[in-house]
Design a protein that fits this description.
This protein has a 4-stranded mixed beta sheet with strand order 2-1-3-4, with helices on one face. The chain is α+β, with helices and mostly antiparallel strands and about 280 residues long. Helix 2 packs across helix 8. It is built from 10 helices and 4 strands; from the N terminus they run H-E-H-E-E-E-H-H-H-H-H-H-H-H. The radius of gyration is 22 Å and the shape is globular. It has 2 domains: about 70 residues, Glutaredoxin (3-Layer(aba) Sandwich), CATH 3.40.30; about 150 residues, Glutathione S-transferase Yfyf (Class Pi), Chain A, domain 2. Bound molecules: glutathione. One of its GO terms (cellular component) is cytoplasm.
């Protein structure tokens, strides 16, 4: 009986401690506003923190490129801060600072930019609904399929771009750093991709990615951009996803898939590029 009381008391105290520590951890994480990087910010200027440029395209990250595209398309005053080290409150890039606040995650940044800079909505609510659905497909399922071929199947090419083009490491260190990279993040990326899309075989990843590309070609039809003659934020997502795998300096299967079966998407990339990034690409092949 005495033993039983002791057990209950220990259990109760343990539970209270765990609950208290958990509460403190979660609350302090949520309450603290992230520390600002730009102290002397100018009103209504967007400070975009993103990865450094790569040789062949404006960025290796589709999410960074989406936001830079939006800033250009809507003529929003901005400054780009290239960084390999800094991360937003979500542990990732891109993030922005606007009027003394940090906003992390391209989905949230998209919402804030639309509201703050009065980016026009599409003419119908139905189109707005489609736009959101396409945007989420692109930045979830399509992104996962692309990552499979761009990163997991070409880990050395991908890390070579990061180490050589983005962080300018000396050549003799690259093989060593690639091994470290593989050990540190290889498994995590594999798990993230399989959680995002599914635990598929290469053949299945290929087939499912092509389903997304087919859908995009059907949605595009003979329009210049997804919803007509004007570029929308969803176009910025599509452009970001496609060029950050198509315009990298190493061969990957998504390039071959696009070249073989998806000329409308390649023409689309060209149109977007001419209009928004006329001087920012070097064709790899
Ligand atoms: N949901 C995030 C995804 C951003 C993301 O995945 N960023 C990656 C690069 S593409 C990143 O910063 N990874 C962390 C790292 O490389 O250290 C968004 O939409 O912004």
């Amino acid at each position: 009986m005495v033993e039983c009381c002791c057990c209950s008391a220990t259990l109760a105290i343990g539970t209270v401690i765990v609950a208290f520590v958990g509460y403190k951890f979660i609350c302090s994480k949520r309450k603290d506003a992230p520390k600002l990087n730009v102290e002397n910010w100018k009103k209504d200027v967007v400070y975009l923190f993103q990865f450094p440029r790569i040789t062949t395209a404006p960025n290796l990250s589709p999410f960074c490129l989406k936001i830079e595209s939006m800033l250009r398309v809507y003529n929003i005053k901005h400054e780009i801060i290239e960084t390999m080290r800094k991360r937003g409150s979500n542990g990732q890039l891109p993030f922005i600072e606007l009027n003394g606040k940090q906003i992390a995650d391209s989905q949230l940044i998209d919402v804030v930019l639309r509201e703050h800079f009065n980016i026009p909505s599409l003419p119908s609510k139905r189109d707005e609904g489609f736009a959101r659905a396409i945007d989420r497909m692109l930045n979830g399922n399509t992104f996962g399929g692309i990552i499979y071929f761009k990163v997991l199947k070409r880990f050395d090419g991908f890390t070579d771009v990061i180490l050589r083009e983005m962080s300018r490491q000396p050549s003799f260190l690259i093989p060593f750093l690639q091994t470290v990279f593989r050990l540190l993040v290889g498994k995590r990326l594999d798990l993230r991709t399989r959680t995002l899309v599914g635990d598929f075989s290469t053949e299945e990843f290929r087939m499912l990615l092509k389903k997304d590309f087919d859908a995009l070609v059907d949605i595009l039809g003979d329009r210049k951009f997804l919803f007509g003659n004007e570029i929308t934020p969803t176009d910025c997502s599509l452009f970001g996803q496609l060029v950050t795998v198509y315009n990298v300096s190493y061969d990957n299967e998504v390039q071959s898939i696009l070249r073989k079966d998806y000329k409308p998407l390649l023409d689309y990339i060209d149109r977007f590029r001419q209009q928004v990034f006329p001087n920012d690409f070097i064709d790899y092949k």
